[in-house]
Specification:
Strand order of the largest sheet: 1-2-3-4
Order of helices and strands: HHEEEE
Structural class: alpha+beta
Shape: elongated
Strand content: 25-35%
Radius of gyration: 20 Å
Length: 137
Amino acid sequence: MRNLFVIICSVLLFVSCKETKNSRALGDENAGKTLIGWYYYNLGEEKYDDLKQYLDQDFFKTTTEAEFYAKLKERQTELGHIVKAVFREGDMTEENKKEKIKEFEFEYDVQYEKTAAVEKFHLIKRGDEFKIAKIDF
């Protein structure tokens, strides 16, 4: 009887740990979608100065701030305003448990006034804070 009780408790513990892990993964995905949603909202409203709060501290190591905003304005002139952005897929690409850093890739199908495009976001989670690390247009 005692062995049966130990087995049942072990199974319940295993199932609850697995559900917690799935719940965290879903929470990370939802947080990433929310962050990118705010990015597209501010981009659509042409609030370029507000976009900086969604970008990681290392974002401007590969490009300057002026070049990035110029590219956004150029794309808006070329493609038109954003009509809608639809989540295509997202996944965690890397995890560093020691430094509590997770990296994600999210793809969006973006419909502009003149054409459609696929945009890929590289997100980074440092502790509990999500930021955009890189955007592939």
